[in-house]
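Reagents: none. Just compute today. Antibiotic biosynthesis monooxygenase.
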Amino acid sequence: MSLTINLYYTGKNGSARRFVEEMEKSGIAQHIREEEGNERYEYFFPVNDPETVLLIDSWTDQAAIDKHHASPMMAELAKLREKYDLHMKVERYVPASELKSDEKFIRK
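Predicted 3D structure written out:
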């Protein structure tokens, strides 16, 4: 079962965007994308909120997320979140295909 986590990073004066730039330029984001079990690691910028960045982060299963959380990359990530004084909101999802009760509402 795939798991998707939406992380909203919010800062001030463009700090969330600078965080993303450093994540990409430093190679941390790419390293996470290459971790076993990672299916998606993409940043998006909401049109109506210039101080927030959305990260869509998908993993094959909970074990892959747990391994990621225990990796050295998490310490690097935490340092950058502190550096840019970011606050987070987290949402967790499972694919609609796993929710049989919703099948009748999904046009394929």
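The longest helix spans residues 15-26.
Action item: order primers for follow-up constructs.
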